[in-house]
Design brief:
Length: 385
């Protein structure tokens, strides 16, 4: 991803919490300063509203309007007249229906929840850690919040997958306040995003009860951890034998519409972690995709990354749809190469038959994925009630 303008690493809910970063995370972030979660959210830029005016070119007068308000950073307004101030205080000029939700409005209630909520008798605030990333002068913020000890333990691996949530917002009208399930593979620091449906609160009207909102979100994490392990184990049993299909590992990702640079990196990681580089299971193929998106993706956090994350997650959570997508894309390319007589070449016909055989193998195991996903959604609904 594009590098953020500023990153803050935190551990523990507040200064009274004696929390250290897990070693695997500390080695990767390489930060001298680590603050508490409470300090981190209070250091984020705030927003307030001020009057907007427009210039009448005929009278050269400035006319104020109540239909719009400028969303600005108050500290930068105070500094604007200073010689050393270079930060633009203006974030956005929305209509008067826009409601500012400041970081303390969202994450202050989370701070209180973390002091009370527990995992196996351990207070979440004592094992919380993560990072906050700022873009566009702090007007756009994304956060990964994880809990050391809330993990998925994979067989034959001493590096667990740590569970948590990712959350964020912006003051530009592009991102409502959001939260969704998240995990980080401690072996390679791959981010596994969108593990739950994204929940949002828009900057309009009553912003609601954030404390109850956070309690519900965090109560789902244990369910997510249990089901993530089951999905990984099932996906590990579904393999693609690349000697039996008409494309290599890089082309597999390209057929899923990954750009060539991401496809090449994903393929390299998948091959290096596979027991057999010519027969790779769906969990390893998913891990290759998440590696590329975490460490190589050239865009920024937002809609383009979200689309690739959904594609990567389908490899793990919906392998049938993934193989169908590969098959359809390959078929479309074969049809584009169809001869003038309207006949698909013999080589392409044979290739499509090869892909269809793989698709049939995946379909045979697809029912258990659908049943597991339906059960997970039902449990989420019960928790919400």
């Amino acid at each position: 991803m594009s590098d953020p303008e500023q990153t803050c690493v935190f551990a523990g809910v507040d200064g009274r919490t004696d929390t250290e970063l897990p070693q695997w995370f500390a080695q990767r972030v390489e930060r001298d300063e680590v603050v508490s979660f409470a300090e981190a959210i209070r250091s984020l830029p705030q927003a307030t509203q001020t009057t907007v005016a427009y210039r009448n070119p005929y009278t050269e007068e400035w006319v104020s309007t109540e239909r719009f308000n400028a969303v600005v950073e108050p500290g930068r307004l105070r500094e604007q007249g200073g010689e050393e101030s270079q930060a633009d205080p203006l974030f956005h000029v929305p209509t008067d229906s826009y409601s500012i939700i400041n970081p303390i409005d969202v994450y202050g209630p989370l701070e209180e929840v973390l002091r009370e909520a527990t995992i196996d008798d351990t207070v979440l605030g004592e094992v919380a850690f993560g990072e906050i990333r700022q873009y566009r002068g702090g007007g756009e913020v994304h956060m990964d919040l994880m809990f050391d000890g809330l993990s998925v333990e994979l067989p034959e691996r001493d590096s667990p997958i740590t569970m948590g949530v990712t959350s964020g917002y912006d003051f530009f009208g592009g991102h409502a306040v959001y939260v969704e399930g998240f995990a980080r593979d401690t072996r390679c620091a791959n981010s596994i995003r969108q593990l739950t449906d994204r929940e949002t609160v828009k900057h309009v009207g009553d912003v609601g009860d954030f404390e109850g909102w956070w309690e519900e979100r965090l109560s789902q994490l244990g369910l997510v951890a249990d089901d993530l392990l089951a999905f990984i184990e099932d996906a590990g049993e579904i393999t693609v034998t690349f000697t039996d299909v008409p494309f290599d590992v890089t082309e597999f990702y390209e057929l899923l519409e990954f750009p060539s640079y991401l496809a090449a990196q994903a393929a390299s990681d998948a091959r290096s972690n596979a027991a057999d580089p010519f027969e790779i299971d769906m969990w390893t193929l998913h891990s290759g995709a998440t590696y590329a998106l975490t460490h190589v993706f050239r865009g920024k956090e937002g809609s383009s990354l979200d689309g690739y994350v959904r594609t990567a997650n389908d490899i793990l959570f919906n392998p049938e749809a993934t193989v169908e997508c590969v098959e359809q894309t390959y078929e479309q390319r074969a049809e584009a190469e169809t001869g003038r007589e309207g006949q698909t070449g013999i080589a392409s016909q044979a290739a499509l038959a090869q892909i269809e055989r793989v698709s049939q193998d995946v379909r045979a195991k697809a029912d258990q994925f659908e049943e597991r996903e339906a059960a997970l959604r039902e449990r989420f609904a019960q928790v919400g009630e």
